[in-house]
From TrEMBL:
InterPro entries: HAD-like_sf, HAD_sf, TPP-like
Record's keyword annotation contains Nucleotide-binding: no
Swiss-Prot/TrEMBL keywords: Hydrolase
Protein name: HAD family hydrolase
Species name: Streptomyces chlorus
GO molecular function: hydrolase activity
Length: 270
């Protein structure tokens, strides 16, 4: 049986120092492995136990890293285990096959966005006009597909995010707040569509998925089974659905538990 595992990365399998959420005394903290370096500084981590579990998983299933990161941002990550044959970047806008973007997939996605959504330029202009410089640190466009802001979270007005979500909804876009980033993403730009394409290419009999944010909800719903950690947008909204397991673990230890769940679900049944 071919098992496909599509997992979000940030705050699902890998964690920044601020997102580790370590609650045990320092002397009991798990050993950490750095899996991402940016500008010569360590940026993202997983526990050494999670690294071992991911290596075991990569040997047993078709493991597909699935992220909203751009291709450049994804390539900074050095995950343990076999190099994935497939990866989903830019929230489904790019499907990497052996490290290279599949041009046919990207063309299909681009055609859908042009036909079904307001243009990126309109959304970007709205963000630039309405985001207050008092709490906005950066304006970014990712892969000419979607836009996001880097903000000071403690200064960010909750009402502004709600109003942005309504504005975006009417134009075929969706909004997600993850840590210090506010994403505006076209609705047809989904991780689930890319996962289904990989499942088709690999002939997967079983699909498993995990994620923590609203941008992961479609991925979890598209899989045969899904898991979410005890932190993130989905947990904050108490989101669940048939086939979805809400884990209580938070922070980097949740990454360990998700990998254990993947391995258990992927084991052949006798």
């Amino acid at each position: 049986m071919t098992v496909l595992v599509a997992s979000d990365l940030d705050r699902t399998l890998i964690y920044s120092a601020n997102a580790l959420a370590l609650t045990v005394p320092d002397a009991q903290a798990p050993r950490l492995l750095c899996v991402e370096v940016y500008e010569s500084r360590p940026l993202s981590y997983m526990t050494e136990t999670a690294a071992r579990l991911l290596t075991e998983l990569g040997d047993a299933v078709v493991f597909v890293p699935t992220t909203t990161r751009t291709r450049e941002q994804y390539r900074r990550i050095s995950l343990p285990g076999p190099a994935p044959a497939y990866a989903i970047c830019a929230n489904g806008g790019h499907l990497l096959v052996d490290g290279e973007s599949d041009p046919n997939w990207h063309a299909r996605v681009s055609a859908r966005l042009a036909a079904e959504c307001a243009p990126l330029s309109e959304v970007r202009g709205h963000l630039e006009r309405t985001a207050d410089p008092a709490w906005t640190r950066k304006h970014r466009v990712a892969e000419d597909l979607f836009a996001y802001l880097v903000v000071e979270r403690e200064l960010l007005p909750e009402q502004w995010v709600k109003e942005l979500a309504v504005w975006a909804e009417n134009r075929g876009w969706t909004v997600s707040l993850q840590g210090r980033k506010i994403y505006a993403v076209p609705k047809p730009l989904t991780k689930s569509a890319a996962m289904r394409e990989v499942a088709r290419c690999t002939g997967a009999d079983l699909t498993l998925a995990a994620g923590d944010s609203l941008l992961d909800a479609d991925l979890l719903l598209a899989a045969d089974r899904g898991w979410r950690p005890g932190h993130g947008e989905l947990a904050d909204a108490d989101w669940t659905a048939p086939g979805i397991t809400a884990l209580p673990e938070r922070g980097v230890v949740a990454g360990e538990e998700i990998l254990r769940e993947f391995l258990e679900a992927a084991r052949p049944r006798r």
